Amino acid sequence: MRTINKILSLCAFSILFFASCEKDEDNNPITSSIPVIEEASITPTTFTFGDSVTITATVSDAIKTLSSLDVQTIVNGRVIPLQKILLDGNSAVINEKIFVPLVNNIADNTSVTFVLKLTNNKNVSSTKELSGFTGKRPHFSQLHLVVENGEIYTLVPQVSNNDNYEALDVVISKSFAYRVAQKITANNEIDYSGLVWGDIGGKIQLIDETGNSIFGFAENSDYTSSVIFDSYNFKTSLSGDAYETPNFLLEYFTETNISGEEFYTLETTLTKGVEYFVYGELVSNNIVYNLDFFERINPNKIKFLGETGDYTLYYNKTRQHVVLLPDVSPVYPDYLVITGGGLGYPSKIAKEHTWWGFGNVRDFILTRQISPNVYQATMYIHEKDDGWVGFRTYEDTNWGGFKTYSDYTYTGLPLEGDPTPGEGNILPSAEMGEGIFRITINYNTFNINVERVTLE
Question: Residue 252 has what DSSP assignment?
């Protein structure tokens, strides 16, 4: 037994000896050192989760180089890493802002403790605990449900629970990807200077630009009709409804290509005065339904203004508009048609222009007869790439019954005649400039009235 004790004593002595003789890279003995947090404070003492606090601290190490100061919060026993402040040298005076994240399941007016951990380059550390802080939950006048397809819906707090934000009477696909944002920009994009909820590892959490969208699915329904976001538990509840009829669904349409652009077409019978429901992608506020033939009642309902008959609808995915043509060739007196250069159906997304022709729906503008011999067309007028724009009216798509500038009188915003001899094209004036205009053609008096239109 004495022999064993002697061996153990010798081992312990050897360990201490070699530790005391440990050398650095310059062959100097390494002396133990403990970093010191001399002073530390955090302000303010009451703050809102999701805001920043300021840490002020004086730290030092008599011998070793400092490497970092880690700041953590402890809330209801949960440790939340906040920030690692990198250091260099034997001392530092710190004055920095630290973001205190909002996490789920934290009550309002919660007691918060901050733990500071100071470490030197030999991985020796010391800690200091700061207590007496109160964290408050943020509440907002509204949040924004930002769907991945670009649609944005306003979420407002419930009267019964201001941690729950709801959007009712929405029309979204039954499955969709989204984020929840505190702020959006003037261009309807997420402003990441505010709080943004997304997906991290399959859970809803606060994210930055690199975070993922959340997947939503309204079970046992055709589409999502309400969204409730729980900002306390970081959960979303979705509910939906069945499609109402008559309706337009993109799945009814046939994909095709017209003049190099992606279209979806639908042959259908439309009834004057009937309101049609639209769902899915066709709900988007970016989509402009032909302003002469449709009135948008609400986001998912449009009213048909034209005469009852068979038509083909054309949804242009590039320019985000829906236009139409009758299934019989449009001819006077039911219709007038307009073709030329620098014209196009209105779009919020991209300009479009025709170029003298009747080959397809992109080549000309269809008018609607709004009273006997009075026709209306709403179109975008802008200069083509070659700087030219102008048009004529025709009574059919075989170039028949055309009228030139001198055949009409003009009211409203002025139009001009083409100075080229023998042309007689109708041109926009400098006063009109570029934009969306409603052209009303009175074939009884041969007058054209022009007014500017603003898209909502």
Answer: G
